[in-house]
Design a protein that fits this description.
Layout (H helix, E strand, L loop, with lengths): L1 H57 L4 H51 L39
């Protein structure tokens, strides 16, 4: 009986071990994606930081200070790139669709609110004034509203 229980426990442990290895297979595409993006990004970071390191060597700073400053600079550039990629993702997937919807709805609203295709002057109930009719009386101030003030 004990041998049967031990055999069953080993069998379950072996199956669980295979599932653990199979679970790692799901992470392989993510690892390949990070490898494809991360290695060129590391190359770009090193190309950007290399001239600064050369300048620091030319100024005569100790090598360990140059390497510390260079690693800090590469870390800063990496942080900026990470935040920039996140901002691009937010801008591309959140801000751009909202902006496009706003623009399209504004165009549609203006298109729908036009009256008779833009010819709104001829559909009124009052006829246009005749050309030989006297002009209407002037009401309100006739003088310049600035009243002699210098506009400049």
């Amino acid at each position: 009986m004990w041998s049967a229980i031990r055999w069953l426990a080993l069998r379950i442990a072996a199956i669980r071990w295979l599932f653990k290895l199979g679970g790692l297979a799901f992470l392989l595409p993510i690892a390949f994606l990070l490898k494809t993006i991360g290695l060129p990004l590391l190359g770009i970071l090193s190309i950007l930081a290399l001239p600064v390191l050369i300048l620091l060597f030319l100024f005569g700073l100790p090598i360990f200070l140059v390497l510390i400053f260079g690693s800090m600079l590469m870390g800063l550039i990496g942080t900026v790139l990470t935040i920039g990629v996140a901002a691009i993702k937010i801008g591309l997937f959140v801000v751009l669709p909202i902006w496009l919807a706003w623009k399209v709805s504004g165009k549609v609203w203006r298109w729908m609110s036009r009256k008779d295709g833009g010819d709104s002057g001829t559909t009124g109930t009052t006829p246009p004034p005749a050309s030989d009719a006297p002009p209407p009386p002037a009401t309100g101030p006739i003088s310049d509203p600035t009243d002699g003030m210098d506009p400049a």
